[in-house]
Protein 1
Amino acid sequence: MSGSASPSGKKKRLLAPREEIAWFPVIDEELCNGCEACVEFCRPGVFAPGQTDAGSEVCRKPKMTVANPYNCIVLCTRCEPVCPSGAIALPPGKSFEHFVGYVD
Ligand code: SF4
Ligand code: SF4
């Protein structure tokens, strides 16, 4: 997403089409408890609850899914500490810095 402000106050500009930048979270299904903290937190709407397990006798919250990966803001990592289960992982930022330019 272009035009978002960086911590330094400069605007970020993507240097490649968003769909060519594989920056988005991955959820560890084993760890996710379906609490929905991430979907409530992430304004760009990257997350969405998955299907409930219809065959299960135990009523559990559905696991979270990364429904809109390319809505994720490149180099954002804010949802990682929001997850109480440590289920969210993002790529190493260093490998993606060359995709982002900064303008005043
Ligand atoms: S890194 Fe930021 S934009 Fe991406 S899913 Fe997490 S909170 Fe949303
Ligand atoms: S915050 Fe973590 S545990 Fe809660 S739904 Fe999202 S990924 Fe799952």
Protein 2
Amino acid sequence: MAASLLVLAGCVPTTHPLELSRIGKNVSDAAMEQQLPAPGPVVVETVTSATWKVPLSGLLNLKDPQAAALQDRDEPIAVYAHVLRHPVHGNFLVDTGVSARIVQNPSDYGLNWLLQKVMKLDQMKLQKPTADIVAGLNGPLGGVFFTHLHIDHITGMPDIGPEVPLFVGTDEATATYFKHGATQNATNALLANKAPLQELPFTQRPAPLEPNTFEAVLDIFGDASVFAIYTPGHTAGSTAYLVRSTQGPILLVGDTSHTQWGWDHGVEPGKFTRDQAHNRESLRKLKALAARHPGMQVRLGHQ
Ligand SMILES: [Zn+2]
């Protein structure tokens, strides 16, 4: 009885320790956007840590009328880690790529045979394991900012030191959902013995919002170099990062759009998404942001 109630109510993604982040200052969308024309101080490198193939019906809502001509199939994608080099604050990752240990011994990290099968782990081919990315930093890793906590975004954790601060969006670690029952053990195992998760201190603006206003925006370091944009929908705490790089603004979308087709057509992900309508709205706002700043580079969740 208790077990079935638990399944119905859903469970949290992870029971890993959680605390409130001490960094991040809430700012207006306008305060963020007025900084974007000038190049910033951060060097960004997006690394393909692994290639992968997963069903298109997970990556895209194939029920959308625009997707009528698309058939479900295994779609080639990549698993990225984004390296941010800040001249004052140091080196950071946005998401983690894939550790070689995950590919070699998945069951050591709670990825049982069923999860391996569902995730199509046999289709994951390492290109640059997380350990190599971290070794190439030329200095310590100052923190990891997660776009969200789905397994494929924490698969680099075996190669991340226990002292490295870890940051997630509001509600990402605490929102209940029935699908978390299948992944909580693996998420806990991947985070085991690592630093507590720090929840970014987004102050959600009261509804109704103006159509193109985000639900919350943070200036991470207080120097207008890296902004976190609260974009819930794909998961409860999905977060995009807008980096003022030496090459101009770079938007790290996360899985609010996994695919190029989804971004181009404004169609949200499919079965991998928690709340389609909310995901679509967050995607629309990110596209509108990019359209207002034509020099912005856009880097999607998996393509
Ligand atoms: Zn993903």
